[in-house]
Amino acid sequence: MCKSGLLLLFAVCAVILLPAVGDAQEPAPVFDVHMHAVQPKFFERASEANFGAHRKTATGMVTDPVKLLARTLEEMDKNHIRWGLLSGDNSMVQEWTQKHPGRFLPSFTPDLSAKDHGQAVSQFAKEVAEKRWRAVGELGLPYAGKPLNDPVLFPYYEICERAGIPVFFHTGLDGPDPQRLVSPAFRVELGDPLLLQDVAIRFPKLKIVIMHMGWPFFDHALYMLYAHPNVLVDVAVVDWILGKAVFERMLREAIDTVGNDRILFGSDQMVWPQMITPAVAAIRDGKFLSEADKRRILWGNAAELFGIR
Questions:
Q1: Which of 189, 240, 293, 303 is the most exposed, fewest CB within 10 Å of its CB?
Q2: Is the distance from CB of 215 to CB of 250 less than 8 angstroms?
Q3: What is the DSSP string of 142-201?
Q4: What's the start-to-end Cα distance of the chain, in Å?
Q5: Burial, 222: exposed, middle or buried (Cβ in 10 Å; 0-12, 13-18, 19+)?
Q6: Is the pLDDT of residue 17 over 70?
Q7: Angle at 193 (CA atoms; ends 189, 196), nearest 5 degrees
Q8: Which positions ≥6 away from 250 have C-beta within 8 Å?
Q9: Rounded CA gap, 297 and 284, in Å?
């Protein structure tokens, strides 16, 4: 082959190879709507529950608050998580957010043990006006022995509806051996997503997030998505604590039934920041998911919910 022919061949090969080089881009960004700034001592007894699926969480807890923040940020960077919505200990939430304002959004948790919320509601309204909070919850009502439709929190929802900020509800599953290790008052039926009908009807413009896909009441969560346009779900913890087949069945059914535009990614990292990686992988590696599905779940839906580009 002549010299000019060789040059032409090299040029053609270079053009062919360029897309392959271009494909080696960083993964798309991730928005984790289910993260916690918590006092790790709350989970000290979790190591006692070393059975079944809970073997994944019985060891490897990060119980030092400083290390927990550092490990959480490390896992966020590793998995290209640009934003995390934080709930838990309100003072810790604000501390982490102020230290890393470009990484975390603060979510408020009311004191569920309070008898009178009047003063707390007034203070919350003031702080919402000051942009101190971007969401409410995770609301762990079932852990306090209260149903999801308990009207005691309705005054908070009125403020949220007016301000356009979402409310996140713990639904369904509990921790391991919950009455002994977490809360004697916990009853899983108090977290049935169908109880949120009252909230969705009373506050039709309020964005309501059913956390954990409602499992083991997934069909009820799916019905709420089907029936109410102001309802969303997150996939936190069920994306790594349950078996792959169970999680993928639920996610596939949700997308097949109501589409991909109200499903949010979450990790529920708590004191197990290492679980962020398998949580993200459960979506990124989902062979039945289209690229549009993955972008919507990992980033687009949450970015739209919080008005972030």
A1: 189
A2: yes
A3: GGGT--TT-GGGHHHHHHHHHHT--EEE--S---SSHHHHT-TT--GGGG-GGGGHHHHH
A4: 53
A5: buried
A6: no
A7: 115
A8: 213, 215, 218, 238
A9: 10
Q: What Å distances lie between residue 6 and 2, 15, 17, 18, 19, CA to CA?
A: 6, 14, 16, 18, 21
Instruction: Taking each helix axis as running N to C, give the angle between helix 218-227 and helix 244-258, from 0 to 180 degrees, rounded to the nearest 10.
Output: 20
pTM beyond 0.70: the answer is yes
In whole angstroms, give the CA distance from residue 147 to residue 145.
7
Its sign, for the CA torsion 88, 276, 143, 118, is positive
Query: To which residue do tokens 């998505």 refer?
Result: 225
Instruction: Choose between 238 and 44: higher pLDDT.
Output: 238
Alpha carbons within 13 A on the beta-carbon side of 91: 2
Buried/exposed 18-50: b ≥16 CB within 10 Å, e otherwise: eeeeeeeeeeebbbbbbbbbbebeebeebbebe
Task: Walk me through the domains of the chain, giving residue ranges and CATH numbers.
Answer: 30-306 (3.20.20.140)
Eight-class DSSP state of 234? E
C-beta atoms surrounding 8 within 10 Å: 12
Q: Pick from 56, 25, 33: which is nearest to 280 by CA?
A: 33
pLDDT for 121-137, tens place per residue? Answer: 999 999 999 999 999 99
Instruction: Compute the distance between CA of residue 309 and CA of residue 153 in angstroms, rounded to an integer.
Output: 31
| Side chain identity at residue 271, one-letter code | V
Which amino acid, 204? P
